[in-house]
Structure formats: structure tokens, C-alpha cells
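Appendix C: a fully annotated inverse folding record. The material below is reproduced so that readers can follow the format used throughout the book. The structure is listed first as C-alpha cells, followed by the designed sequence.
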């Protein structure tokens, strides 16, 4: 792919630090967010800037391991390490942290993070279905709204929530359209290129601007496909990556798949399709609509989690997938255990080759992963 086409996104994360600093100088507040369950609409309605803080780098893990267990999930250690080392400018610029109880490791780590910054913890229910779960979660979402009103000295109106819902729905629309480009065969964009765009665009402080940039990229990619410009061919194995969230820095499995001759055409995980396939209902009472949408998030922390299985099944067909790679981080027990049931479900429904990979952020197992992934791709071919 033409490097200039992705240039705006390659620099977006770096450039956002200065724009975020200027926004704070002008009185803007910043909310650092760790999870897809945290409603960005409420932050926007409060007049603040939501910024992602989930750690995807190996670098700060050694700092985290001075406090946290070594056998803990690398995502948790990376997130804490960035905060403890003071090396994450986004953490440093955050006025409040929005966190959630998606796993035991994260919720205990958040107790330690609360020593660095004010932190609001959303207590998730254990299930998604039923009026009781929704009623409970609505209360949690409302508490977040009230906390931000106190912290930022604002009143979050229904109209402000509606405006924020419209903006984030438009953002989801643009990101879904971009990812849908990979439904074209062969895809005009690599999985590594798509991952970089999805990851870096989250750091842009102006959502309206990033929607325009994403839409422009989508149009250019569609035109490239019409002209036959692609790094792949009709026989390139098309891979769906499901499981834990990945980003720039935790991308080694994506990179190995494509170096070995495959193409990751879809990311089902939190930073990919899972975040955009569903929108907030603009016709309902806004806070209730936000609660309903976020409670539907198909995450392995929920029991049961049939909605994830159904989503992956749909994506296998829509993206014309040849194989599924289920990625789990070491110490991520919910995704690790759920992989067994997901494999059974997909073998019954779709009969596609399925590979589970359990790893961390380090490079220590790269050669071993190459052997497994090469064999998997050869079996598909």
C-alpha cells in the first residue's frame, strides 16, 4: 500500500499530544479510558475529551512487575506500567480515569491506579440479558454521569447526550465502513495497515475531523480495489482474528500471519468490529439507550456470552474467511477458557480451520509462533 495514504494516521498519535495539551490549556478536561464498556458519549456530553489508555507495549511491563504478579495479563501490566513510570503523556494529561470490572486482575489494578489519579469504576453485571441486569447497569451509567458532573463542574443535559450519541454513531459508521473494505477480495489493505489506522485514530482529539479522514481513506481504498491495487491475491488465506484486544505494540501475531502469507481481514476484538457493528438508539431516552448499547458488548467477561459466538459466525461469512485465529493473552482466563467453546461452536456452524494462540507482548516465542502459523496457513492452502 502507498505509504502516503496512511501517513495521516501514522502521525496521528504523536500529533495528538500537542493538541491535547493545547485543549487543556484552553480549559478542556480529559478522561482516560481503558475499556469498550466505558461510554464515551457521557464524556463528550460533559464537554471533555475521551482518550484511550489501554497498554499495548512491552516496554513498561518491567516497571509494573515491581508491584504486580509476573504471571498477570500483559495488557494489565502494560497499562499499570505506563502510569507508574510516568511515561504515558495521555495518562499524565488525564483529569480522571474511567475504568470497569471486566476481570479480577483489572479491577484490583485499578485500585492501585486510583492512587495516581481520580478514578471512577463502573461495576459490570455478570450477565447481559434480563431487566434486572439492565436496571443495574443503567444505575452504574447514571453514576458515571453524576461523577463527571461533579468532577468537571458541569450539567450533562439530555440534549448534550443526544448530540454526543449522534457524533459517536457517525464515528462508528465511518469505522465500520473502513473495516468493511476488507470484505473485498482480495483486500486492498493489509491487516497491519488496518490495525494501525484503527489504533491511532483513537488518539485524535477531534472526532468530526477523524470521521472525515477515515471516510477519505475508505473511498481511496475502494478505488484501489477497482484498479486492482492490492498487496494480496485471490488465493491469499483470509484470516479472522478474534479474542483479546490488540494494538500497535501488541501486534506480533498479526505481523507474523501476514509475513507468513496470510491476510488478517477482520479484527473482531474490542478495537475492531466489536466496537462498531452496533449503535446507540437515537430515538430512545439517551442515558437508557447508552446503557442498552454498552451492555450488549459481546465480551468474555459475560456469562453466558453467546452474542460473541454469533458475531464471529456472521463475520466468517461476511468477510469470506478461510480460517480463524483466536488470540488470548497469558493470564486472560475468560478468553482462554471461552476459546474451547468458541471452537466447538464454529466447527459445528462453519467448519473453518481454527487456531488458538496464547502469548504475551514479548518476542520470546516469535519463532515458535511462526512455525504454528505457517503450518496453519499451509493447511488452509
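Designed amino acids, in order:
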Amino acid at each position: 500500500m502507498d505509504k502516503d495514504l496512511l501517513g495521516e494516521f501514522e502521525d496521528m498519535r504523536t500529533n495528538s499530544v500537542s493538541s491535547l495539551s493545547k485543549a487543556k490549556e484552553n480549559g478542556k478536561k480529559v478522561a482516560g479510558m481503558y475499556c469498550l464498556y466505558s461510554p464515551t458519549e457521557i464524556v463528550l456530553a460533559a464537554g471533555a475529551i475521551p482518550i484511550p489508555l489501554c497498554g499495548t507495549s512491552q516496554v513498561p511491563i518491567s516497571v509494573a512487575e515491581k508491584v504486580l504478579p509476573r504471571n498477570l495479563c500483559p495488557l494489565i501490566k502494560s497499562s499499570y506500567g505506563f502510569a507508574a513510570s510516568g511515561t504515558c503523556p495521555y495518562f499524565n494529561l488525564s483529569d480522571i480515569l474511567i475504568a470497569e470490572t471486566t476481570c479480577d486482575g483489572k479491577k484490583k489494578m485499578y485500585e492501585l491506579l486510583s492512587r495516581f489519579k481520580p478514578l471512577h469504576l463502573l461495576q459490570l453485571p455478570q450477565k447481559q440479558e434480563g431487566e434486572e441486569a439492565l436496571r443495574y447497569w443503567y444505575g452504574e451509567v447514571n453514576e458515571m454521569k453524576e461523577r463527571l458532573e461533579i468532577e468537571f463542574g458541569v450539567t450533562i443535559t439530555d440534549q448534550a447526550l443526544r448530540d454526543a450519541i449522534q457524533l459517536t454513531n457517525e464515528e462508528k459508521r465511518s469505522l465500520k465502513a473502513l473495516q468493511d473494505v476488507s470484505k473485498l477480495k482480495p483486500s486492498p489493505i493489509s491487516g497491519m495497515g488496518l490495525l494501525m489506522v484503527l489504533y491511532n485514530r483513537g488518539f485524535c482529539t477531534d472526532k468530526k475531523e477523524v470521521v472525515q479522514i477515515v471516510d477519505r481513506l475508505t473511498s481511496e481504498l475502494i478505488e484501489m480495489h477497482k484498479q486492482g491495487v492490492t498487496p494480496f491475491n485471490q488465493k491469499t488465506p483470509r484470516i479472522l482474528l478474534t479474542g483479546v484486544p490488540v494494538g500497535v505494540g501488541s501486534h506480533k501475531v498479526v505481523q507474523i500471519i501476514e509475513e507468513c502469507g496470510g491476510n488478517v481481514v477482520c479484527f473482531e476484538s474490542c478495537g475492531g468490529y466489536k466496537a462498531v457493528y452496533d449503535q446507540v438508539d437515537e430515538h430512545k431516552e439517551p442515558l437508557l439507550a447508552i446503557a442498552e448499547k454498552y451492555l450488549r458488548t459481546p465480551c468474555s467477561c459475560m456469562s453466558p456470552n453467546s452474542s460473541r459466538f454469533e458475531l464471529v459466525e456472521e463475520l466468517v461469512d461476511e468477510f469470506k474467511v478461510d480460517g480463524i485465529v483466536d488470540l488470548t493473552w497469558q493470564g486472560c482466563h475468560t478468553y482462554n477458557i471461552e476459546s474451547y467453546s468458541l471452537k466447538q461452536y464454529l466447527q459445528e456452524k462453519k467448519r473453518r480451520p481454527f487456531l488458538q494462540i496464547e502469548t504475551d507482548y514479548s518476542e520470546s516465542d516469535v519463532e515458535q509462533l511462526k512455525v504454528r502459523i505457517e503450518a496453519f496457513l499451509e493447511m488452509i492452502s
